[in-house]
């Protein structure tokens, strides 16, 4: 991996330039290299991994971004295992804590048993959602029956129409914040339904055992990207934002601040709204331009608090909590083992978190942990947080996934992955199945590589004739 393009000048002419060194970009590069196609991956940040980033608290490496893999996420699991990375089961023993309407209680399983009526209402809403998701075409949601109607309202509007109880709405709001980085009122119902279907349904989405939160990567998720980049060597350059992509019948020219790279094709893997930071010549068609203006990422922040020991375990608690009062709305136990340090990972709502200075953020998180886990939570040994929408993340600020607003999916969804001449798109937002996950990102990288490799081979055949 190189720090800039000041390297072997021959490398500035390759078959394919890949923009972005997240999972999509790096796996596209790996697949192309394996088929004999020359590549250069150009990354704007000074690191690889994109939305996967490693942090440290009390000497323990933690995932500031992407964390979990499900047993069904075979593409990212295969990649991790080929690179010598292993998985650790998410700790899930004991009771979970619920803080709702100022009341603390404990529960077991995925859905809190607030009261029999509340539980019944959550079941009713979940069933109605699952019924609607079964009608959605994951690969072309805009072609689903009733797509226009489902896209014209927000998930929040739909919860109102269903007369969801306050407690159900609070739980759906937590789900929305963690999946899309926004409240239910800000996300299109069609986008929510399509996403739920793409990730295997609500149970799979929220469960630990057998579900999306089953395992963590022991070495951290960014380490997978680092190892893959290491294998790709000088084919990956970091700290080099792409500013312009021009194309004509013979190829593309990708411009950075210091260099022009000539190639036959480009694969762009940035989040959709970040395509707007690149000057495309010729310009993107109107619909593709619309994608860059409307598919904004939601926002999400994370904080990790370390203790001498995972003290909650000895009180029979799992370290898993849901709360309806900010900034923390979910916690998980990501301690290495029983002996310590104990580490609680918390998801925080940026609206009531990011604007505070770091001392205030720490104070607010710890205060909430005391409410959830008792006075011992007030004696931490270390703390770290990461605000994904902060300026320290200039090339992809935001959160996990786009918060696609009503009317946006049907209008622009079909342009997300439609190639622009010699420019092809990959990245998790272009995924069908497993959208929103590292697994989806890997699949889109591999699929884009296969499509482009065929074209490169086709142009070589023509040249040989
Ligand atoms: C807080 C958080 C928690 C998450 N939790 C999970 C989880 O538990 N499990 C899971 O599976 N997924 C999770 N995700 C989602 C997962 O991280 C993403 O789906 C996946 O990493 C996306 O990979 P990608 O390659 O498509 O995009 P990215 O990782 O966004 O990569 C795109 C790259 O393009 C670069 N770039 C942008 N513009 C330019 C430019 N002009 N020039 C050059 N480079 C540019 C960016 O810097 C970035 O490195 C989480 C994400 C976040 C933020």
Give structural attributes.
binds flavin-adenine dinucleotide, 465 residues, FAD/NAD(P)-binding domain, 14 helices, 33% helix, alpha/beta, 20 strands, 7-stranded mixed beta sheet, 8-stranded mixed beta sheet, Guanine Nucleotide Dissociation Inhibitor, domain 1, globular
Structure, explained:
Helix content is 33%, strand content 21%. The chain is of the alpha/beta class and 465 residues long. Among the domains are: 9-50 and 221-297 and 402-464, FAD/NAD(P)-binding domain, CATH 3.50.50.60; 114-206, Guanine Nucleotide Dissociation Inhibitor, domain 1 (Orthogonal Bundle), CATH 1.10.405. A hairpin with a 2-residue loop joins strand 7 and strand 8. The radius of gyration is 22 Å and the shape is globular. The relative contact order is 0.20. Bound molecules: flavin-adenine dinucleotide. Flavin-adenine dinucleotide binds next to helix 1 and helix 14. Flavin-adenine dinucleotide (FAD) binds next to helix 1 and helix 14.
């Amino acid at each position: 991996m190189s720090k800039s393009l000041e390297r072997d000048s021959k490398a500035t002419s390759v078959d394919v330039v890949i923009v972005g060194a997240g999972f999509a970009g790096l796996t596209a590069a790996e697949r192309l290299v394996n088929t004999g196609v020359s590549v250069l991956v150009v990354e704007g940040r000074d690191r690889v991994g994109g939305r996967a980033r490693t942090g440290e608290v009390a000497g323990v490496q933690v995932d500031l971004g992407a964390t979990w893999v499900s047993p069904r996420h075979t593409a990212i699991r295969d990649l991790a295992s080929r690179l010598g990375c292993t998985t650790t089961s998410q700790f899930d023993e004991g009771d979970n804590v619920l803080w709702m309407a100022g009341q603390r209680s404990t529960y077991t399983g995925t859905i809190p048993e607030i009261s029999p009526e509340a539980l019944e209402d959550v079941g009713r809403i979940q069933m109605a959602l699952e019924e609607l998701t079964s009608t959605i075409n994951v690969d072309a949601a805009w072609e689903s029956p009733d797509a226009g109607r489902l896209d014209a309202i927000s998930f929040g509007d739909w919860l109102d129409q269903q007369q969801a109880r306050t407690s159900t709405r609070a739980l759906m709001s937590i789900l929305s914040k963690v999946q899309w980085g926004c409240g239910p009122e800000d996300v299109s119902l069609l986008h929510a339904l399509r996403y739920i279907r793409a990730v295997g349904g609500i149970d799979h989405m929220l469960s630990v055992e057998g579900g999306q939160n089953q395992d963590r990567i022991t070495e951290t998720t960014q380490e997978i990207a680092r190892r893959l980049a290491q294998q790709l060597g000088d084919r990956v350059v970091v700290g080099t934002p792409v500013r312009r992509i021009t194309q004509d019948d013979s190829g593309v020219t990708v411009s950075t601040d210091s260099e022009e790279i000539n190639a036959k094709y480009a694969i762009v893997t940035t989040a959709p709204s970040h395509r707007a930071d690149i000057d495309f010549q010729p310009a993107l068609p109107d619909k593709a331009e619309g994608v860059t203006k409307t598919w904004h990422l939601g926002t999400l922040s994370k904080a990790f608090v370390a203790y001498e020991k995972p003290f909650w375990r000895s009180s029979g608690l799992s370290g898993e909590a849901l709360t309806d009062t900010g900034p923390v709305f979910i916690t998980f136990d990501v301690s290495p083992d029983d002996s310590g340090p104990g580490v609680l990972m918390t998801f925080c709502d940026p609206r009531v978190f990011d604007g505070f200075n770091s001392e205030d953020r720490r104070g607010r998180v710890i205060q909430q942990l005391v409410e959830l886990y008792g006075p011992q939570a007030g004696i931490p040994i270390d703390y770290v947080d990461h605000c994904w929408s902060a300026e320290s993340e200039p090339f992809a600020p935001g959160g996990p996934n786009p918060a696609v607003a009503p009317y946006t999916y049907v209008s622009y969804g079909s342009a997300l992955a439609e190639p622009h001449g010699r420019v092809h798109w990959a990245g998790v937002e272009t995924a069908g199945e497993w959208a929103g996950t590292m697994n989806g990102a890997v699949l889109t990288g591999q699929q884009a590589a296969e499509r482009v490799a065929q074209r490169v081979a086709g142009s070589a055949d023509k040249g040989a004739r």
